[in-house]
Amino acid sequence: MRQPAPPFCPSLKFIAASLLVLASQLGQAQTAAPAPEVDLATLARIRDAALQSDFAWQRLANLADKIGPRLAGSPGAEAAAAQVGAAMAAAGLAVTQQPVKVPHWERGEERAELVDYAGRPAGITQRLVLTTLGGSAATPAAGLTAPVLLVHGIDELAARAAEVPGKIVLISVPFDQHLADNGLAGAAYGQAGEPRFRGPSVAAKLGAAAVLVRSVGAANYRLPHTGATGFAPGVQPLPAAALSAEDAMLIERLAAEGPVTMKLVLTPRTLPDADGHNVLADLPGREHPDEVVIVSGHLDSWDLGTGAMDDGMGVAAAMGAVQVLKSLGLSPRRTVRMVAWANEENGARGGKAYFESVKGKLPTQVAAIESDFGLGDPLGFFGAISEAELKRLAPVAQVLRSIGAGVMTTRAGEAGTDIEPLQQAGVPGFAPLVDTRHYFDYHHTAADTLDKVDPQALRKQVALLAVLSYALAEMKTPLARVPAGH
Amino acid sequence: MRQPAPPFCPSLKFIAASLLVLASQLGQAQTAAPAPEVDLATLARIRDAALQSDFAWQRLANLADKIGPRLAGSPGAEAAAAQVGAAMAAAGLAVTQQPVKVPHWERGEERAELVDYAGRPAGITQRLVLTTLGGSAATPAAGLTAPVLLVHGIDELAARAAEVPGKIVLISVPFDQHLADNGLAGAAYGQAGEPRFRGPSVAAKLGAAAVLVRSVGAANYRLPHTGATGFAPGVQPLPAAALSAEDAMLIERLAAEGPVTMKLVLTPRTLPDADGHNVLADLPGREHPDEVVIVSGHLDSWDLGTGAMDDGMGVAAAMGAVQVLKSLGLSPRRTVRMVAWANEENGARGGKAYFESVKGKLPTQVAAIESDFGLGDPLGFFGAISEAELKRLAPVAQVLRSIGAGVMTTRAGEAGTDIEPLQQAGVPGFAPLVDTRHYFDYHHTAADTLDKVDPQALRKQVALLAVLSYALAEMKTPLARVPAGH
């Protein structure tokens, strides 16, 4: 649905039905929606301009193809910050490179083989495909060889504490694609990801020699999925890696027949913190330039792929959103600020540094959007705000419906890693709702490359972010702050 | 459909319809089929026993999980020959280890990066994912750096001969999955594979420094697909590798903007020929033990995956076929001989050595089946024989129809690489028809692993090979020889 139709137009019945659906979604099935706080025609103009623009696609192609991996501390990360800053300045935005001290972790060698198992012919070993987790410690340079202890979750690991010392622990939890196919990719990630997030620390405390997790992802092409892990304070980090799903299944089969012994070589290095940058690009507000609506993605990406979807798509869409407002000559009441965050993947230092810079003037931070679930078509957006406040954004949903992105819903909690500090301080947080059915096929793998991104899905996401950020910046009064614990 | 039903049974109408379809397939829509040359009840008994057996699955699991890669000349190849021989002897078959001198090629290091291209920020290079082709020569140990010449086929390569000297040639032809989805995976392989088969030799003659091909395969998970290449007599081999599809697409995009320069390190070695073995396991014939029907797959496999589908599935199905006949106490007129070929992938020496061993007694070689298109459900079989001769195998198709494998068709030419020398000498050749829609997702990659094989599809293939090989061995008179050039 585009703009409200004049009375008595030929498709009145269709439009009436659509309005009824909208009203019902707003919980006001029997009454008309209140007059919108922002001009629908302007929102529609933004949407349509976004769908005509290839600015974001060109930014994404430049990031992914010309620079590629952008892990914090790497040359790619700094090249990307410079490239994004230059592109936004060229588009007429006011650019700030905000310094951020970032972790600096390098991958090094990663290889493993099964050196013994029941039924192994003499002279045969089995090469495994795996990738080191961010934050992992190193094995000795020559590797370590130890028996494998196979468990199927953190609970089983804890229950078998006595068996852990000296072992290479494999925590094997498959990714539940069925959940992802049903719009619950986040839940699937949470379930399969728990061993990666928490397992290494738990195993380290119990005296493991190393820990492996089954790769957190859907498609099985012997593709290991990296990602950050962490260790609780006081726990000595140990070598930690993600096995390809196939190799986790192989060990499951072999372990059913007898002991399995592995040789593991991981040589990552944790270097001193490096200089990184959040890139800020402002479209100054016409009434309250000191008040800010953030629209953002994260610029850093894992080192295996080229970060086209995680999160090149999000950062390019945020860049495109501000650029489309600028290109239309729009200047909403408040400043719209594009932020390309420096360090989402392994430290969240970008979001923390930004928060430090604004924590003395938090009322100026009106709302924050982060797009970090890219790849698929956007379906709408969610806000970590109350139902009542969300209704004020009905015009946004209304103009996005014609591009299939008109769903609007509340969802408590973090809308994005980098905006979480702001959210915890009461700033309303938002994120796009997107088709994530295939997101975890590629997430944190070498296969996160530009060819996976549909240019039209990117244009739609630009439209969504532009319309939403404009509306948030244009509303007469800001959205209410969000109480702690919402 | 199982056995012919008695008259007046409840499903008479269905059976009559089915028989009509069968008769139509035989080109005899209006007349009844002739009396079968082999007993349908026996064929049905073989089929049903095969569907109950996990012998083949256990053989496949042992090959793929306990040994893994089995490239000719490797320790895995010899361990596999020993393992297969022992399993067939334990099943009561007469086993022969037939010596074969095989090529011995080892992969070594393989890495590449783009070191210059339009718009490259200072200090940035782009890592590529690629894998060396079997038969490739090595670059200098420190690598070679050269401009990339991008072409889209052998014709364009030849047309641009003047530009070739000193370049790293990339021949980029995408795999046509649409053909594969329509039962034409072989044609898709032929089209996309031509650059791999012929490109290196052509590029070498024109003075290239190295040649790359886009990986021949369907699913794009940054997964490089290896395979053999070859060089014409007198042509000096050059370094040759398959790029992941993503990286071929990346170079296409970058090359559209300006020159691209690559650093390439490939350090394969070609060693002296090694000792390998074809494994033969005979179920002796009751009337003509000297006459042989071959049922076979190839034991060697590429070194990246564990060769579960290419061709663990084929060799395990052939093993299972002979074992099921043995387990039923059957002894057809002629000998059924399981052959696990030593060297399909990079030299076809197994088939050639076998041919040398029988070429003085070719009339004893009655028919040959090779299964080397495994993974999916079998749909039937084809024979490189005349329509008239094929009709004699109607009972085979008839008993396989109930498991969805009742299609029977002629197809000229090679039915399998290893049986091709026999076929060229007039021996009727056969192969299963299988669902190959997803075969090239995994073909010659690290992802060719046991989890890709459906145990029930394997059982069905055992049934097919067992029924077909029994029928060929039991027929009163052998099939007619196939004229040259059929």
Helical content of chain A stands at 25-40%
Q: How many individual domains of chain A?
A: 2
- Oligomer classification: homodimer
**Strand elements of chain A, count:** 16
- Could you report the average pLDDT of chain A, rounded to the nearest whole number? 93
Count of DSSP-assigned helices of chain A: 15
Residue fraction in strands of chain A = 15-25%
What does this structure look like?
The structure is a homodimer of 486-residue chains. Chain A is built from 15 helices and 16 strands. Chain A is an alpha/beta fold and 486 residues long. In chain A, the strands form two sheets. In chain A, strands 1-10-12-11-13-16-14-15 form an eight-stranded mixed β-sheet, sandwiched between helices. In chain A, helix 2 packs across helix 12 and helix 3 runs antiparallel to helix 9. The two termini of chain A are 32 Å apart. The relative contact order of chain A is 0.18. At the A-B interface, helix 3, helix 4 and helix 8 of A face helix 3, helix 4 and helix 8 of B.
